[in-house]
Amino acid sequence: AMEKSYVSVFLLLVAISCVLAKDVGKKETKETSTKPKLPQTLSRGWGDQLIWTQTYEEALFRAKHSNKPLMIIHHLDDCPHSQALKKVFAEHKEIQKLAEKFILLNLVYETTDKNLAPDGQYVPRIMFIDPSLTVRADITGRYSNRLYAYEPSDVSLLYSNMQKALKLLKTEL
Question: From which residue to which does any coiled coil extend (predicted)?
Answer without folding.
Answer: none
